Amino acid sequence: MADNHDEVIEHYNRFHAAVYGPVGALDRKTRHLICLGAALGANCEFCTKYALGVLRELQASDAEIDEAISVAMTVGASNARLLAKKVRAENP
């Protein structure tokens, strides 16, 4: 794998550019709002900073950013709630 590291990175860079480029079924701002939520869900600080920076460049409003954050929070909260329910049911 070490022999083709540069090639792997180049494939990743093309993939990233294709996903976040100007053309897509979703507009760039929507894709980066999704990125923000996914980054928060993955607990990736670097990705969260990246998404927030791009969203600022794309002039996303604070309300749009806050809503994406709220949606991401529901995923974590739902997971905790369902896990607790499962564990309680298995351990009465």
Structure description:
With 92 residues, the chain is mainly alpha-helical. It has one domain: Up-down Bundle (AhpD-like). The chain is 78% helix and 0% strand. The protein contains four helices and no strands. It has helices at residues 5-20, 28-41, 45-57, 62-90. It is flat. The termini are far apart. The mean pLDDT is 93.
Relative helix content? over 70%
How many strand units? 0
Shape field: flat
Q: Which ranges are low-confidence, i.e. pLDDT below 50, for 5 or more consecutive residues?
A: none
Q: For this structure, what is the CATH class? A: Mainly Alpha
Number of domains: 1
How many H/I helical runs?
Answer: 4
Proportion in β-strands: under 5%
CATH homologous superfamily heading: AhpD-like
Give the SSE string: HHHH
CATH fold-level assignment: AhpD-like
Structural class from helices and strands?
mainly alpha
Major sheet attributes: none
Summarize model confidence as the mean pLDDT: 93
- Rg is 18 Å
The N- to C-terminal Cα distance equals 49 Å
CATH architecture: Up-down Bundle
GO molecular function, one term: peroxiredoxin activity
Domain Carboxymuconolactone decarboxylase-like: 8-82
InterPro entries: AhpD-like, CMD-like
Protein name: Carboxymuconolactone decarboxylase-like domain-containing protein
